[in-house]
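note to self: dont lose this again. the chain is below, predicted strucutre after it. 226 aa total, dont forget to put it in the shared folder this time
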Amino acid sequence: MGHYWLGYSEALPMLQAMRASRKTLLARVPWREPGVIMKYLDAGAMGVICPMINSREEAAEFVSFLRYPPKGQRSFGPTRAAFACPDYSIEAANAEILAIAMIETADGVRNLKEIAATPGLDGLYVGPIDLTLGVSGGRLPPGFDREEPEMIDVQKRIAEAARNAGIHAALHCGSPDYAMRGIEWGYDMVTILGDVRYLASAASASVDAFRRLSGTAASAGDLGAY
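---
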C-alpha cells in the first residue's frame, strides 16, 4: 500500500483470499501512521512493513502501534482478525505479529545498530532504491541490484546488524541471481520485483518478439507493433 494504488478496499479481499494459503500475511503500509497500521492489523495482516525508519525512537513508536497495552498503544478492534485468526487474543497478537522496519536512508544507516536493537522489532527490510539515493546523496541513479562497492557494503552491514540483534533481515531485489547473493550475505528473506514490473516485462517481451518476427521497426508511431 505504499507506492502502488492499493487502498483498504482492495487490500481487504486480497487478505481474505490469501488467508486460505495459511501463510503469514504482511502489509507494507505507506507511512508510520497509527490509524492506517492498526486498520490493516484489524483486517487480518499478521505483520507490517513500515518505510523510512530513521532512528531508534521512530522504530519504537512503530512497534508500539502493533502491540496492545501494556506493550504498546494499539487500539482493540480486530474486526476481521478475530475471525480470520484462530484463538485470537491480545497475548497472541502481541507475541506473533511482526514489526519490520525499512532501512532506506542515510540516517537509517547511521542509526542502524540502535534501530536493530529496538525491543519488539522483528526485522529490517532494505529498500534498495531509496537506500542508494540516501547513502549516495543522489550521486548514484535509482535502481535495483546495486553493484557499487559502497552499496554492497551497506547491504551487508544491514544484514549483519540484524543478525547481531537476533532479528531477521530482508532485501528487495530485481532478479533471482541477486536474490541468491542476498541469501549468501545473510538475508533471511528476499523479494523479487513486483506484479506491475512483471506484467510490464512480459508485455515488453511480447512486443519485442512480434517486432523481430515481423520485421517491424520499433517506432513511436508504429501501431502494428502494439
